[in-house]
Amino acid sequence: MIQELHHIGIAVRSLDEALPRWVDGLGLRLEGVEEVPTERVKVAMLYAGQTRIELLEPTSEDSPIAKFIDKRGPGVHHLALKVGDTGETIRVLTEHGAPMLDETPRPGAHDTKVAFVHPKWLGGVLAEIVQDPEEAHS
Ligand code: ZN
């Protein structure tokens, strides 16, 4: 069901501050920056070889990322796992008793379909299930 680690999500206070360190310092390639209004975040996707690092900057005080930073400070926020079909994965996980934060797939950054699993199910790790848009022809 899980094909690979898709990306690691990291909460940052400011992309302007964080990006030069990841791009110029570490030399990761920036794929793009996109705002996801439903999540009230600005997302920068970086390539680290086959996997990606997703930097998340809150765009409003009530953004889930703003709340995360308030509580725990900036840092690793979630692991994203790539699947072929987010809807089917939600069904299987629910069957296994996973408390889903999303009961149906919702749009993520870069035209993905995503769903989150409550961190209490994975020992405090927030997991994101991601289906890429190009899945149909891969
Ligand atoms: Zn993510």
Characterization of the model:
There is one protein chain. This protein has 138 residues and is of the alpha+beta class. It has one domain: 2,3-Dihydroxybiphenyl 1,2-Dioxygenase, domain 1 (Roll), CATH 3.10.180.10. 22% of the residues lie in helices and 40% in strands. The protein contains 3 helices and 8 strands. An 8-stranded mixed β-sheet has the order 2-3-4-1-5-8-7-6. The model has no long low-confidence stretch (mean pLDDT 94). Zinc ion binds next to strand 1 and strand 5. The site of zinc ion has 6 residues, from strand 1 and strand 5.
Record keyword descriptors for this entry:
single chain; 138 residues; alpha+beta; 2,3-Dihydroxybiphenyl 1,2-Dioxygenase, domain 1; eight-stranded mixed sheet; 3 helices; 8 strands; binds zinc ion
Question: What's the arrangement of secondary structure elements?
Answer:
Blueprint: E1 2-11, H1 15-25, E2 29-36, E3 41-48, E4 51-58, H2 64-72, E5 75-83, H3 86-95, E6 106-107, E7 113-117, E8 127-131
Parallel strand pairs: 1-4, 5-8
Antiparallel strand pairs: 1-5, 2-3, 3-4, 6-7, 7-8
Zinc ion binds at residues 7, 9, 54, 78, 80, 128.
